[in-house]
Amino acid sequence: MAKIIIIGGGIGGLCTGIALQQRGHDISIYESTSTFQSTGAGLGIGSNAVKALDKLNLKDSVMKHSKVLNKMIVLSEKGTPLTETDSLLVSERFGTDNVTIHRADLHHVLRHALRLESIVLNKKCVDFMQDQDGVTISFQDGGAVRADAVIAADGVNSLFRRKLVPNSSPRYAGYTCWRGIVSNHNIEIDQAVATETWGSSGRFGIVPLADGKVYWFACIKAKARDPQAALYGIKDLSTIFKNYHSPIQQIIEATSEEALIHNDILDIKPIQQFAFGRIVLLGDAAHATTPNLGQGAGQAMEDAYILAKCLESSEAIETAFKAFERKRVRRTNKIIKMSKQVGQIAQLQNKWLIPLRNAVMKLVPPSVSMKRFEFLYDVNWD
Is there a contact between 91 and 131 (Cβ–Cβ < 8 Å)? Predict the structure, then answer.
């Protein structure tokens, strides 16, 4: 078996390492951070991604930490339902559920599915050089390693993509986001329903997690790297969303200042090439998307299984990487574009256009909305 290096110990890198180890490959995962401190709060795992986890023999372990969703409802800022997605219909049609999970719990499951010695921490890749026989990776600490192939799972700011695909820098979506998790609360929500509230001050999401926890996010329009927005805390967010329906205020106020996470929302303009000889881009390095379809982590999970299948089906690494590219470019590009469109509609803050948007959303039958997003769950695994 070939010696394969994976750069990046996020969800995509870990899932790919698991998929390849299961097939007997000699893999090493190099992570730039010195510890696995999971950033982020909660995340959604769509039916398609749950299916990918099942194919990686990880579903049962992940489900122990997950919360199954029955519905996702979009509300006006006064709490009026605008549109509804029935997750139970997705489960019936595609055989798996839409679930939520704390990111730290997911990382824990993935790390423990790998051999301990296969993960190397505190190794930041700063350069690479490819020749016809392999790839040499250089690290910030002066060290270097060589492998037959490299899987670049180094995120939206990927060094590999920047060098291999010029002019593919991350692009700002136009809105910034705060996230938090509330535990040990007395807030009443439907534990099987996720909601998003779209209003003139911004967007607020409420997502149930396992063990009674609640994950929430708040997105508002702002300048990229806005220094004022970066200073916002609980009181500021409470003021911004003060006219929104219950229990938004209670959720914000129940969050500790230390637990608040803030970052600008980024994606990359769709690219047409993931495979470059013995190097392949994977996950956010290849197709970073805004979170509006809940598919960022899910597409990395799909990548992991499909790349492993491609390597299993071809003796030549370059051929396998090209096959992976053919299978993944069109689908991931479509998701990036659609997620961007959804975000633009959701983040409308024009007080004249919002009522029109809301009225149109109420008129669209749920079956029509389901049809539009059906492709997310219908994956060709061959």
Answer: no
pLDDT band for position 36 (50/70/90)? confident
By DSSP bridging, strand 134-139 and strand 66-68 are unpaired
Which residues on adjacent β-strands are paired with residue 125? Answer: 139
**The pLDDT value given to residue 37:** 66
Beta strands in the chain (DSSP E): 3-7, 26-30, 42-45, 66-68, 71-76, 81-86, 99-102, 119-120, 125-131, 134-139, 144-147, 149-152, 171-182, 193-199, 202-208, 214-221, 261-267, 275-276, 279-281
Percent of the chain past pLDDT 70, that is, above it, reads 99
pTM: 0.96
CB 117 within 8 A of CB 17: no
Q: Going from the N-terminus, what domains does the chain have, and what CATH number goes with each?
A: 3-170+267-376 (3.50.50.60)
Residue position matching structure tokens 């991350």: 170
Question: Can you tell me the mean pLDDT for 336-342?
Answer: 98
Q: Which residue has the tokens 């180094």?
A: 154
Q: What CA–CA distance (Å, rounded) separates 52 from 47?
A: 9
Residue type, 38: S
